[in-house]
């Protein structure tokens, strides 16, 4: 029997920030330690503040029903190919425009 991936949420300092698929809780927790993710969330902004200050606690946990619904909607709207890791942000991101 093959298990389907579950949906997990990454909390940054207790704030639900993004949802993603993982095979199990252990795999989801490994995402918190990925260098590429830490770089991304340190640069991405929401309401003029970085998502992560480089110090706040990152914690993966099973998603709530609302977070799962947000993830599934993002997956439907996404143009990512099968097998790519989809990160569904649960916070509104600031525009990624270059400053002059």
Compact overview of the structure:
The protein is α+β, with helices and mostly antiparallel strands and 100 residues long. Helices cover 29% and strands 26% of the residues.
Q: Can you give keywords for this protein?
A:
100 residues, alpha+beta, four-stranded antiparallel β-sheet, two-stranded antiparallel ribbon, 29% helix, 26% strand, globular
In angstroms, what separates the terminal alpha carbons? 55 Å
The total of beta strands comes to 6
Helix content: 25-40%
Q: Mean pLDDT, rounded to whole units?
A: 90
- Tell me, briefly, the overall form: globular
Q: How does the major sheet shape up?
A: 4 strands, antiparallel
Provide a descriptive summary of the structure in words.
With 100 residues, this protein is α+β, with helices and mostly antiparallel strands. It has one domain (6-89). Helices cover 29% and strands 26% of the residues. It contains three helices and six strands. It has helices at residues 25-31, 35-43, 65-77; strands at residues 6-12, 15-22, 45-46, 49-50, 58-62, 88-89. It has a four-stranded antiparallel sheet with strand order 5-1-2-6, sandwiched between helices. The chain has a two-stranded antiparallel ribbon with strand order 3-4. The protein starts with 5 loop residues before the first strand and ends in an 11-residue tail after the last strand.
């Amino acid at each position: 029997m093959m298990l389907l991936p579950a949906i997990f949420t990454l909390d940054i300092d207790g704030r639900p920030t993004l949802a993603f698929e993982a095979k199990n809780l252990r795999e989801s927790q490994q995402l918190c330690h990925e260098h590429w993710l830490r770089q991304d969330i340190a640069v991405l902004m929401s309401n003029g503040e970085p998502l992560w200050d480089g110090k706040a606690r990152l914690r993966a946990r099973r998603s709530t029903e609302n977070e799962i619904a947000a993830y599934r909607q993002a997956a439907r709207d996404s143009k990512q190919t099968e097998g790519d890791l989809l990160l569904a942000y649960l916070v509104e991101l600031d525009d990624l425009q270059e400053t002059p």
